[in-house]
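ok so dumb question maybe but i'm new to this and my supervisor (M.) told me to 'just get the structure for Guanine deaminase' and walked off. so i did the thing. is this what she meant?? sequence i used:
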Amino acid sequence: QIYRSALLRFADDGSPLYDSDGLLAVAPDAHGQQRVLAAGSWQALQAQFVGLPGAQVVHLPGKLLAPGFVDMHIHYPQTDVIGAPADGLLPWLEHYTFPHEARFHDRAYADGVAEFFIDELLRNGVTTALTFATSHPASVDAILTAAQQRGMRMIAGKVLQDRHSPDGVRDDTEQGLIDTDTLIQRWHGVDRLGYAITPRFAPTSSEAQLRGAGALAAQYPDVWVHSHASENLDEIRWVRELYPQARSYLDVYHGFGLMRERAVYAHCIWLDAADRALLRETGTAAAISPTSNLFLSSGYFDYLQADAAGFRYGLASDVGGGMSFSPFRTMQAAYVVGREQHSKQGLSLKPGQLWWQHTAGAARALGLEGVIGNLQRGCEADFVVINPACTPLLARKTQQAASLDELLFAMIVLGDDRLIEQTIVSQAK
Ligand code: GUN
Ligand code: FE
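this is what came out, is it supposed to look like this??
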C-alpha cells in the first residue's frame, strides 16, 4: 500500500522530519505484520514504488500522515472517573477511584469498559498505551482480549495493592503475585501484547508484595514495571512514614529491584538530584501527565532538570486523573507546564519536541524504539490521518502557517479529537 500525503516523522535525534508531498509505503512482513517499507518525499521515492505489482496508491490531498500516538500511562478502568472533583490525589482515590475500580471484579462490566476505552484511544489517534487494569485478574483479560481483537500493541497489568485499600480492590499479598505470574505467562509477547508488573504505588503495597514484585521483575526482564512515584506532597509524606529507611520515594522502589530498563513511573514531579541520577543510571523512564497534574494540582514536571540529568521520559494522559484522551490536549498542557515551572528561564518546548515526546520519544522510553512511534523503515505501521482543516479556525491557522513549527503549534494549541480523521493500526493477520 502506498500513501501520498504530507508526512511527519522523526530523525534519530528526535528532530521532526516533514514532507509536504510525502510517500509512505507499507507492506506485510513474514508474519503478516504491516511495516513501513519506505517514507520520504514523493518526488524521491515514487519511481521506486509506484507501479510495483499489487501496489495501490491512496492519495490524501490536504491531509497529514503522522505516527500513531503512544500514551505512556493511563488507567482504562478510570474511563468513567474523568472529571470527578476532589481535593487532590488521596481524597480522589478514596472517594471516586477505589469505589469505581471495585466494579471490575465483574468480567462483563470490564469487557464493556475495555471496548469503549479502545474505541476512544483510536478515535483520538492513540495506537499504543501502557495501561493500569485493576486488582482483579479478569480486568487484564478484558483489556488485552479487546486489544488483541483489534490487532493493537498494548501493555497492561493487574494492580498489586494489598494494604491501605478498601474491600473490593485490596488483593492478597501472595495471591496477587501468583496472579501476576499467571498473567505474564498468558499474555506477555502474545501477538502485539505486553505485560507490566503493576504495584499501584508504594503506600498500597506491603514490603512483602513489593519484594515479590521485584523478584518477578528480575525473573522476567523484558516484562514492564509500571507504577506511580512522587506525584503529590501528601502522598510523599505518607511514603516517608511507611518507609522511613528509604532515602526517597523512588529509593523505595529501587530497594526492591523495581527500577530498571522497561520500568515506568508516572509523574516523578518531586525529585531531587539523586533521584534523577537513579532514573538515568537504572534506565528507568518517567511518564509525564500534565493534564492530571493540573487537575489534581499535584505540581509541575521539571523538564530542565530532567534534561540535565538525561533520563528518559514521555507524555501520558493519566486518564482518569487526566482530563482528556486527546494527545493534543496533553501536549498543550505540557507546553504550559514547561512555560510555567521556569518562567524566569523561559523554557519553551518546541512543537516538534512535544510531538516527539508523545510518539517516538514515548516509544524510546518504553524500550520500543524503532518498533512503534515513528514512520521510519521497519516500524510497525501504526499511523494517523490528520485533517488540519477540521475546524474553521484550524483551517485558517494551518493555512497561514509559515513554518513547520507554526503548523505543528497550531494543532497542539487548538487541536483535539476532531483532528484525527482516521487511525490505522498495523494488523498482524
Ligand atoms: N497513585 C496511586 N493510584 C493512582 C491513580 O489511580 N491515579 C493517580 N494519578 N495517581 C495514583
Ligand atoms: Fe495514574
